[in-house]
Amino acid sequence: MSNLPKINPEEEILKIQSFIKSVMSKQQKKNVVIGISGGIDSATALFLLKNSIPHENIFVLYLPYFENNSEDFKDVIKDINLPEENVKEVSIKPIADSIIKTLNIPEDKIRKGNVMARVRMIALYDYAKEIDGLVCGTENKSEFLLGYFTRFGDGASDFEPIQHLYKTQVYEVATKLGVPDKIIKRMPSANLWENQTDEEELGFSYKEADEVLYLYFDKGMKIEEILVKSSKNAGKIIDFANRNSYKHHVPYLI
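User: That's the sequence. What structure does it adopt?
Assistant: Structure tokens below.
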């Protein structure tokens, strides 16, 4: 039995859609740009957008580094019916490779992945400037608490519609929204290197992480208590989050 509190997906969808409309109204913006990866988080955020604002005001960028993932992207947008000119595919490989070469970055997957994530955000914010719009983020609460994001990369946005939802809760919302089953079943990946998956890199599943993170951060329980109620990886999960917690506090000020 899950230790996470139950959510009502339908109520969450209505709440998020109201939030999106409120942000757009307060900021006096009509247009939104979102980066799509082919994964569940960006797909869920896109489906929430298309239920909240006119389709002609949604702009999608697919920013691959590798050339073999375009089908993932097409799976996400095929039923959205956005204007053709609102959807762009731009390879970040030439830009990322140029930066990697210029900075003489070695064979370090993390450093190279950070470059890719930050190049994508440059593209998104430049496009947002072109269309006078906002950048929609796609981060969930699990990634946020774990610090599993690149600062000024995938961690950058103008608003975050699903950051209050744990990853396993995103699946519930996605199912209710009608996100294609193929996307829901796809292994989570940031596509920062060949065959990368989130859970392999993390060393634990999102299901394990969500229960532990909820008990530790939301309920204030100690590791010893959590070990009794949840995953044997509790120590590993909490250590991962604590090691990355500085990301939530920078830049440090006087």
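Strands lie at 31-35, 58-62, 87-89, 133-136.
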